[in-house]
Structure of Molybdopterin molybdenumtransferase:
Amino acid sequence: MSTETAAAAGHAVASPPADWAQARSRVHAVGLAAVLPVTARPLAETDGLTLAEPLTTRTDLPAFPTSSVDGWAVRGAGPWRVVGRVLAGSTPPALTEDGTTVEIATGAMVPEGTTAVLRIEESDRTPDDRVVGTPRGTPEWRQPGEEAYAGEQLLPAGTAVDPAVIGLAASCGYDTLPVRPAPRAALLVFGDELLTSGPPAAGRVRDALGPSLPAWLRRYGCEIRPSDVIGPVEDTLPAHVAALRKALADADLVCTTGGTMHGPVDHLHPALEELGAEYVVNTVAVRPGFPMLLARLTGADGRVRFVAGLPGNPQSAIVALVSLVAPLLAGLQGRQLPELPHATLAEPVPGRGDHTHLALVRLDRVAGTAHPVRHVGSAMLRGLAGADGFAVISPGGTGEPGSRVPVVPLPLRSGERAS
């Protein structure tokens, strides 16, 4: 039994909380070691998935010379006798005689023997129906391989598939792509004190994480269905074990909310011990969000699954999400751990002693500055709703105005685009 497992089981041995940056790297590496298997999907079904192999060109791009304008493909000097028309989607006969031309449409294949393409708006017709004009000095067609040569790598494995990638793959002639599928996630909400409808009252609070965490998980690339969200789970050890066992049967990742401490109704650690889980990270030296964990289990089928224990306080839960869950999911999908962008603090941000402080900030992307927001208590969500991410204040330090600090971005809201 590891020291972390022993501590979780209530024994005297305890491990210090993991350094935040090291925990982030560790869970990403663990995710990569359990990367999801490759599957081939039709292009239309790949949005949001991850390239499992480099995207390479199957032919030159363009595959053949194509006209970039509407006009005339001519051979030799003019005036030119019209001998045909070339439209996109056909293979034209060669121009074999000087003084001849074919009308050509934008995107059409340029006939062999063409010496120039004359723009339609810069041409004229003689009384005997010949074409006259002066072609421009630069070719008015796209050369084969102008965008890429056959076999050239366009995108590396690990690239997130988006509409632009889908379009590029289609232009290369792909009908399917080898991808890493979306991780399947489930959510277990712990806490008898939680209400699932109506306003808080009579000592009970409204569950904010059950409705919101699935949306966060989807933005990190997970598949999670309404039936995958369970809770509140009864505050007993048998109920926790049963809920975890059921969720782990189908999910690659089970997130839980609450129960990450060692109070009288905190059953997550004993439940994980009963299931034979191994801790990857058990508590992280970060504020808010300190009592978070990631555990790993291997099923009877040999497949590795994960349990992420998120604190019950809503903002702390999101800190755990960006600290442990997001790096894990990047690894499971075969993606690199994203390098954190930096911003200049516009106002002071306090440190949190020997813990990393993740401070909610709003970004001014034009000025490149980060502005702390208000209402940032562990149990509050008001500040989160107006924030763009978390400024990272290192242990033992403070965030002084004008200093450059890393920022953990929140996943894009629907309709937003990365700047």
